[in-house]
Amino acid sequence: MRSSSGVAALGTVLASLLYLVQGATLGGSQNVEKVTFPPDFMFGVSTAAFQIEGGWNADGKGESMWDTYLHKHPEYTPDRSNGDVAADSYHKYKEDIEMIKELNVQYYRFSLSWPRILPHGTDNYINKAGAAYYRTLIEELKMANITPVVTLFHWDLPTPLMDLGGWSNRKMVDYFVDYARVAFDLYGDIVKIWTTMNEPHQHCYNGYGTNYFVPALESYGVGDYLCAHYMLLAHAEAYRLYNSEYKPHQQGNVGITLDAFWGEPKNSLNPDDVEAAERYTQMHLGLYAHPIFSKEGDYPDLVRQRIDRLSSLQNFTRSRLPSFTKEEILKLRGSADFFGINHYTTFLMSSSSMEKTWKVPSMDHDTGVKLEQNPNWSKPGADWFTVYPPGFRKLFNWIKREYGEKIPIIVTENGMCDFGGREDYRRIDYHNQYLYQMWLAIYEDDCNVIGYFAWTLMDDFEWTDGYTVKFGLYEVDFNSPERTRTKKLSAVNYSNIARTKQIDFGYFKRNFTENGLNNII
Ligand code: NOJ
Question: Is 402 annotated in the active site?
């Protein structure tokens, strides 16, 4: 167990504080008043270019595949929306910086829009205005003492590259490395923390292997693995490029952001369910993490064997999951300075050979795990989202068990969605409880978690759900041309956490609710 010197009042049972505010109850088994994170713990907030920037064709920006697809298919989102204006951060970034300052966080994670910098996707032409936008943003962040954490690819692939097959085309590895080089050249003097890819699993599975995300290729059990394979190789090449040509003088770090639901066995006494939950995590997180973070490298054996066997049974001459060469395995192994993880929710898992909605072949069929939600867990917004804080702690422990305790883990996203409203007590509860589980993972389980980024700074374009669900700490009025931003209560709570590096479970009750809320929002 880690030293508990930073722990304030641990062990104090506060029955009287087992509520947060006005009827919002605490979901977990937390029974302490305050817990404290290490003094150098990184608190931050995250966004992504397509979800907030707008300015879809401003100042020479090229189209991303999301622009193109949503213009052609307005029916894709329930509110027929797109990212043309979004929260208009392309024009309102100064306000964003004021909000980030108000949150007291020391880090801001955002992504570069590849087509804003390289309108054709390729590096033969750099859009000066697009490049200057990020330079100004980064410089102003630094003047405000906020450290930028930059994601190179958060799903908005330039359309001309999608037209060539996107991540199902091996050539994308070269295009990504060329783009990474441009970004390191443009910003590497002042950006010291990079993540290459955001959630390759969600991107490949939903976009290439189903039609849930753009590009909606529906190449079940084939396109999703090609995408995974080439994104992994592109990540490794970009990491190696940075290490050999930039790190010696720029001295920064490069990681990757993966994602995972936690898989809780439906019946923990049933070995089949326990095995199913493990299989799910290997097939979804292990597929990406094992080649990079394991001692052996390459895809996990379980994944390799399962997909090879099913491919052969399905009469494929070769496995639907491509293979790495020996050289590629070495290039991938150890190709990250930190493990970025996004986590939101947990599912109950049980074994199944075939569900009605599964295609053959498909990644779902390859995985053979049925996902259900626990009806007792609250569901505050999007359909896929239930609240189960202990899943967070279990996930950290899974990562530690699989990949050891040395690799630093940064939570690059965690947050709650609802349908809007500024008195968002449930979001306060969500942050407090998930952070508490993370704190337990650090102090009780020795997991090497060094940072936490809340998702997200403000309400934004939530992909398939358009603007119908909200994840923001700040509300955005999408009906106003000004895209007016207004603080939610959760921003006040998170700001206190980031300032004090403490979760103070009674903070809200003591400071605000008794005197009314009007003075703070
Ligand atoms: C993870 C993705 O990175 C982000 O873009 C998305 O908005 C959140 N999940 C919430 O769904």
Answer: no
Structural contact between residues 173 and 234, judged by C-beta atoms closer than 8 angstroms: yes
Beta strands in 58-142 (DSSP E): 107-111
The predicted-structure confidence for 487-514, as pLDDT tens digits, reads as follows 999 999 999 999 999 999 999 888 876 6
235 C-alpha vs ligand 1 centroid, how far in Å? 20
pLDDT in tens, 461-487: 999 999 999 999 999 999 999 999 999
Q: What's the helix, strand, coil split of the chain in %, to 5?
A: 40, 15, 40
Task: Calculate how far, in angstroms, residue 484's C-alpha sits from the geometric centre of ligand 1.
Answer: 22
Amino acid type, 62:
G
Index of the ligand 1 atom closest to the CA of residue 456 = 7
pTM over 0.85: yes
Task: Report angle CA 20, 23, 26 to the nearest 5 degrees.
Answer: 45
Nearest to 260 by CA among 350, 342, 154, 347: 342
Task: Point out the ligand 1 atom lying closest to the alpha carbon of residue 471.
Answer: 10
**Residue ranges of domains in the chain, CATH in brackets:** 38-497 (3.20.20.80)
The single-letter DSSP state of residue 158 is B
Ligand 1 pocket mutation, candidates 199, 213, 418, 465, criterion most atoms within 8 A of CB: 199
Note whether 408 and 291 are within 8 A (CB): no
Catalytic-residue membership of 413 = yes
CA distance 60 to 87: 19
DSSP single-letter state for residue 90: H
